[in-house]
Amino acid sequence: MGNESKKEIMFNRMKNKKKEVKLVRRIVFTITLFLLIVGGIGGYVSYNYVKSALKPLDPNSDKVVNVQIPIGSGLESISSTLEKNGIIKNAKIFKYYAKFKNESDFQAGDYNLTKSMTLDEIIKSLKTGKVYRKPLFSITIPEGLTLEQIGAVVEKKTTYTAAEFLALVTNDAFVDRMMVKYPNLLTEEIKGENVRHALEGYLFPATYPFYEEKPSLEKIVETMLTNTDKTMSNYSEILHSEEKSVHWLLTFSSLLEEEATAQTDRALIASVFYNRLKDKMPLQTDPTVLYALGNHKERVLFEDLEVDNPYNTYKFQGLPPGPIANAGKSSIEAVLDPSKTDYLYFLADKTGENHFSKTYEEHLKNVDKYLK
């Protein structure tokens, strides 16, 4: 009986031990499985985090953030500065990315960066000392275009029609908002009684890069107005000293722009207009007649000169009510710094070269010599 009891005890111990082993194995398996799952999830989360950190923080953001990189800054401090300013998601990932690509020689300075910049664009900016971004598309606005013509350019480069563009830039509510946003540029003069379009001549000729696939039409126009506002601020001091307005300058400059040819000396043409204004002579410039007519013609006829429109400088003395096109920098600066001459007349020959004269008799001789 004693021996049987010992056997039972041993048997029960072995049985219990097997159960413990099974339980331990089950626990180990459960824990291992749990760790694998957690590790997998953690790895997946980590992968996605790193992946997102390598992309622009906000591809749709166009807000400019000024970032100062002090002299002597290393990659680690630069990375930290970028993260603190909200330009990148993670400083360590940016640092390792730059190291992986073997990038160095970053320059100190002030940078206007955005959250929509890629890491490569940020790195290139920091290496070159200037902000670099690759635009998705650009719109080039040449000199001497009217709003209608600018609309045609926008139509070719975007999904917006020329009609939609013109409807926006001539919309009173939109113009009012822009006047509030750009008070030094857009004054009450643009709403003069005889002004055809308030924003005519106010969209500066330049190449405009865009970094989002489809910016709003308002944003496109505002980008151009911002450039005009910035450009005209360079002349505010001289305009103030001369007691002249931006509207006056853009109006005068637009006449030079429309009269100019490749060989034209704009400063000389400006002197002719100044001399005529001083002598209270009508400016008599053909582009204003065409603008008054509202259509382009290869040749202005005598009957066209009689059109009863405030923009017609053959019939009305002084500058027209507003710009007749957008003017470039060279025309603007020619108005502000004209040549000193006694010329009252000029004409362009068939090659585009201009010929100037002081008297009407000399002008008629030039007509016979170069145009007949």
Automatic annotation (TrEMBL):
Sequence intervals crossing the membrane: 23-47
Any one GO BP annotation for this protein: peptidoglycan biosynthetic process
Reactions the enzyme catalyzes: a peptidoglycan chain = a peptidoglycan chain with N-acetyl-1,6-anhydromuramyl-[peptide] at the reducing end + a peptidoglycan chain with N-acetylglucosamine at the non-reducing end
Location(s), subcellular: Cell membrane
GO molecular function annotations of the record: lytic endotransglycosylase activity
Enzyme Commission number: 4.2.2.29
Task performed by this protein: Functions as a peptidoglycan terminase that cleaves nascent peptidoglycan strands endolytically to terminate their elongation.
Family: Belongs to the transglycosylase MltG family.
Annotated HAMAP family: MltG
Protein name from the UniProt record: Endolytic murein transglycosylase
